[in-house]
Amino acid sequence: MDRLNAEQLVEIAALEIRDHSKQDDIKEQEWHSDQFSVYLVWQGKEPLLPGRTYEFISPNATTICSVSSLKYRLEPNNKRQIAAATLKQLDIGYCNIELDQSIDYAPASYDDKLGKFILNDSRTGEQVAIGLIQFGLRRATNIRWQEVEIGQVARAIAKQQKPHVLWFTGLSGSGKSTIASLLEKKLHARGHHTYLLDGDNVRHGLCRDLGFTDADRVENIRRISETARLFVDAGLIVIISFISPFTTERRMARSLFKDGEFSEIYVNTPLEICEKRDPKGLYEKARRGEIKNFTGLDSPYEVPEQAEIILNGGKEPPEALSKQVLDYLILKQLI
């Protein structure tokens, strides 16, 4: 079968929706949600990564969304459903998506205009997918935010500090964890309430089910970002030490916090120095082919463009670098 174009694939997805939808089950008063089951025709040159944020554009709304789960990839020629972790260019995928806000919509089986949307790359603005809404997820309408009596301000006042996220990023072996640990000791000595989230430590529990593919790295950062948001709400100064190689996910993490609550700290240590240090022997294993998708070698690291702090991890000792961060916090009146 010849390779189909995007328009033909969208029509196949529309037929799938019509085949599996019952018009008499549609109730217009329920057409408001922030979570949907959809078909996506992927157009992006880079693969779809569940958990990565994209710009969602429909006739009724423009907002941010992410694919929360990819159910399967649909073979257009025989309609077979194939398990998939990602979508490549001109793949059809059936998945659940989550939006940053609830929107008015219509199922594509009922209205082929209101039920259609596009996804853009949130960094470049390039269109990466055409989507069709099958239905809104019922759980999205059953969940409400539970208001509490004690909020972030009260918790912060009790701790006599300003909640903040200090997000350390850099290559493996750059010195992130060492600097972060030294900084936490300094803050603790000054009486501040902190919590350090380290990349290795969370993989023993919260992220133990994730590997090191690009898709798993995206989900890893999503979980840590949401955890950090809870800790900031608790009034803590949260120190995060993660390679976090992708600009899009670091930007997503920042977007979860209020202005002034998030500082990105890039530990700029050249690859050759990181590899020479190699405290865990990971670079050596990666060079031998024993570790795949290793950042800096066969998986990219996207250098931060707007980090609040850049530390020269190749020339200055960790103690001096941790003091630079402490001085920044004092200068900005964050502590």
Key words describing this protein structure:
335 residues; alpha/beta; Elongation Factor Tu (Ef-tu), domain 3; Rossmann fold; 2 domains; 6-stranded antiparallel barrel; 5-stranded parallel beta sheet; 12 strands
Which helices and strands, and how do they pair?
Blueprint: H1 6-20, E1 32-42, E2 53-58, E3 61-74, E4 81-82, E5 92-104, E6 116-121, E7 127-136, H2 138-142, H3 152-159, E8 164-169, H4 176-189, E9 194-198, H5 199-202, H6 214-233, E10 237-241, H7 247-255, E11 262-267, H8 271-277, H9 282-287, E12 309-311, H10 318-331
Parallel strand pairs: 8-10, 8-11, 9-10, 11-12
Antiparallel strand pairs: 1-5, 1-7, 2-3, 2-6, 3-4, 3-5, 6-7
The largest beta-sheet arranges its strands as 1-5-3-2-6-7
**Beta fraction of the residues?**
25-35%
CATH superfamily name of the largest domain? P-loop containing nucleotide triphosphate hydrolases
CATH topology of the largest domain: Rossmann fold
Show unreliable segments. none
Under CATH at level 1, the class of the largest domain stands as: Alpha Beta
Q: How many separate structural domains?
A: 2
Whole-number radius of gyration? 23 Å
Number of helices: 10
Share of residues in helices: 25-40%
